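Bit of a strange request maybe. I'm writing a small parser for structure token strings and I need a real example to test against, not something I typed by hand. Could someone generate the tokens for this chain?
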Amino acid sequence: MAVLYAFQATTPLLEVYLSRIGIDLMSEIARGDSNAVLPATIVLVAGIGVTVLTSFILAGILGFERQLTSELGLSVDLSVIKKSQTLPLSFYDQPRSFDLLRRARNGSGERCVAIISSTLRILAAGATLVSMVGVLATIHWGLALVLMPMCFLSLYLNLKWGKQRFTLSHTQTPVRRRTEYLAQLLCGAESAKEQRLFGLGGYLTSTWSRLAERLRRETIRLEWRHAGARLGVQGLAIAIATAGMLWLFRGVVHREITVGTYVAMVGAINSALGQIPNLASSISQVYESTLFTGDLFAFLDLPNEVRPGGGKSFPAPLREQITVDSLHYTYPGAAEATLRGISATIPAGKRTAIVGDNGSGKTTLAKCLLGLYPVGAGSICFDDVDMTGIDVTSLRANVTAVMQDFVRYALTLRENVGFGSIEHLNDDGVLLRAASKSGISELVDSLAAGLDTTLTNMWEGGQELSYGQWQRIAIARAMVRDAQVLVLDEPTAALDPRTEAALLERFMEVTHGRTSIVISHRLGFARDAEHILVMKQGRVVEQGSHFELLRFNGEYARMFRAQAQWYVEQSD
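Reply from user aminoacidic:
Good idea to test on real output. This should exercise your parser:
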């Protein structure tokens, strides 16, 4: 690209030079000088050659630029994807993080290419402009000097426009994210049922249209302001060109310059006036693209997740207990802590239930135990080994979970289950055993391609499942990994009573002798657990067995009686 731009910078000078010689030779031929025919023919052929060369140069620049856009765009996208894998989970708890992520992904590859190509255009346009100014100076220094105001004005306006476009794009990001979300709702399958059931289509479409129209008005208003200023700049360029042509015409009338020189100088003026906005636009594009790619590099420079990075291995086997001591955790941007000095013990090899009202911090505590959220103040120890001293690979290999917001991968059943232990992705025996533990063996047998059935109707040959079936698949995914600590966050929330009872029975079997933690609003799980933690407002307020807590007659007893009373009233 650099070589082609270098050639492109020389072609305007060649065109001016050849036009000057060619027209003068044509004038001599018109006066009857036959000796000028051969030189004129050579100049004509050379001019055609320059035109052909220019076409090849432009085609080459366009081809290389698109290739660079494709390759660099892929590289930038890959960098963003890899970076997102290293960010702390708390990054996704902040709205401004999503704004930054969108700006980082929004055409950053194209912006990086624009910096490269615009820099080359600046060098090419600058070289052409300097050569044209030099040509004009050979006639009169005033012809070169009159171009200066045009240069400064065009550069100032283009830089100003670039900053305005960046500022507008920056401020529009939250609204653009909202319009994209609404469009996804309106066109997606997940919300289609409720849209029709509740008649939401008109409201959502109206909301999307209002936001999209706002974005359109703001963008068009800015572009029209730029168009008006651009028209003023072009008016100045026309005035300069007219003044230059009149002055050169005077020279022809007084026989101070030849017709060929007149044509060549007019061409040089027009070329220079054309290069000035190109040069200013390219400088502005570099400036504007640098502002946009600043978001990309700001994203790539975010601090990575602080993971447990010690050299110790996870205790194998876990013999005594998990100890939580004075644990605090505050979500980024939150005014108050979610976990407030939690101290508790989770016995090894036993089933522990964590119960409490919504918002009491149960899921946050589970995420801390899994190493997904960093321990702020306090500590978590597995036996006598502090979590912060355990190698992250060893930690992740020994814990597994089914979270409330589990992922429904629009991929095969094999992948949906096998992702729990990627090294067993092609081990049918391991996957089928996990399927049996979670109660989806019949589902596997009923699918046309078994484990290799795609679980979505988005792809040809795929099959959609119920939410309850998806939940059991998520449980199977957790069962694939032979982890020492198993966490289930509301594991039966979408299951019917009979399936829930069957899964509970299987759960009791597979967790026998394993350290398992169940978070549930249904106290039937708690009743069968060997240990219970009761949470309220970010604290553990009670812990013990089911019967111990009933005798204590505290928070747990209140919750248990409330649920039991509901069932009794229903049966009555």
